[in-house]
Design a protein that fits this description.
This protein has 355 residues and is of the alpha/beta class. It folds into 2 domains: 121 residues, no CATH class; 204 residues, Glycogen Phosphorylase B (Rossmann fold, 3-Layer(aba) Sandwich), CATH 3.40.50. Helices cover 30% and strands 14% of the residues.
């Protein structure tokens, strides 16, 4: 199905036509072929995979699933994704979203639950979230090929994301703070800076790092995070990638399965919406008058004058960083010392060792 038909898929889903058709086919007892549409960012596409996994584990043989999304490589090697013919009249085209996000200041639910809730409604089945992390499927070659070791001779490293999008500048942490963290661990930890510069996406290069800005695609980034000891950044796609490699909970795990991520959270989103095991979350909800009892869900620190409606969802406590950039107070209040101590705690505890 061509992209210009995405709006029709969305309309049919939101009006209930798709759900009604799924119900009729489900009653026949034959496998239902479904192409799942998601035009959101990498992190959203990745998190959606947990609900697809639940669909197959809890209703085996009832569904044949494919995805239509701008980041299809997220699902490479995924045994639950089968290439379907979009022009097959028996194929269902399902739009995805997660309206449960609008209740996250009232209900303690995770991002993964948002998709499961949507699938539960659309398929009219008793689907439950029975996993504590996203799931990434890597090939044997990807698990062996550490690009940093191959190119730089360095086996142990941390991935760092210092970038931000103009649509959500409230998620930006201080670049001077980030540089202070990097400098503190000089000769102890190698940091690899990642990101892709696009219109309205910013990734100022840091000093004393391996600079991979604009040098990895999505799949390479996923593999990079697999081989990394840990990561630092805001609420973004690599947070979900590191969570996918944290094999904790009911699965047998060892220190080799620990993939720490330091979440520069602030106060924009509820903590439990993106909370995962083994991740250090620096939230300032409850410490500021603008987020005294709940997340603020604001978009920008100051207006950018680009006509985007996000210019009207502004931070109530905008500050100016030492580099002259506007920054939300909830983010500026996360100090380098806190992040440094969080990284050190994994080494002091014994799950990680320095190079």
């Amino acid at each position: 199905m061509k992209n210009n038909n995405w709006e029709k898929v969305k309309e049919d889903t939101l009006t209930g036509k798709t759900a009604a058709r799924i119900k009729k086919l489900y009653e026949k007892g034959e496998p239902i072929k479904v192409i799942i549409y998601n035009n959101l960012c990498v992190g959203d596409v990745l998190v959606m995979g947990s609900s697809i996994l639940m669909l197959h584990q809890q209703y085996p043989g009832r569904f044949i699933t494919d995805v239509a999304c701008p980041h299809r490589s997220v699902y490479d090697h995924n045994p639950y994704i089968i290439k379907l013919n979009p022009n097959d009249p028996e194929t269902i085209h399902l739009w995805t979203t997660y309206p449960l996000v609008n209740r996250t200041n009232q209900r303690p639910v995770n991002f993964m639950e948002g998709y499961v809730d949507w699938f539960r409604t659309q398929f009219d089945i008793d689907l439950i979230l029975d996993t504590n992390r996203p799931h990434i499927f890597l090939s044997k070659e990807e698990k062996v090929n550490n690009m940093i070791e191959q190119q730089y001779g360095i086996k142990k490293f941390w991935v760092i994301n210092a970038g931000w999008k103009n649509d959500y500048t409230c998620k930006r942490w201080s670049i001077p703070y980030m540089q202070e963290v990097v400098n503190h661990f000089k000769n102890k930890i190698t940091f690899v800076q990642i990101g892709q510069t696009k219109p309205n996406v910013n990734h100022p290069p840091l000093d004393n790092v391996i600079n991979l800005i604009d040098k990895t695609n999505v799949r390479q980034l996923m593999v990079l995070c697999y081989h990394a000891q840990g990561g630092i950044g805001p609420i973004t796609c690599i947070q979900h990638m590191f969570a996918a490699y944290n094999k904790s909970g009911s699965e047998k795990s060892t220190t080799k399965d620990v993939s720490p991520y330091i979440v520069l959270h602030g106060a924009r989103e509820p903590v439990f919406w993106t909370a995962y095991h083994n991740q250090k979350v620096f939230s300032n909800i409850g410490t500021l008058p603008c987020a005294a009892n709940q997340a603020c869900w604001k978009s920008r620190v100051v207006p950018l004058g680009d006509g985007d409606k996000k210019d009207k969802r502004l931070c109530e406590l905008p500050m100016t960083d030492s580099d002259g950039r506007a920054i939300a107070k909830c983010m500026l209040n996360i100090k380098p010392k806190q992040v440094i101590e969080a990284i050190e705690s994994y080494h002091d505890g014994g799950v990680l060792k320095y190079e």
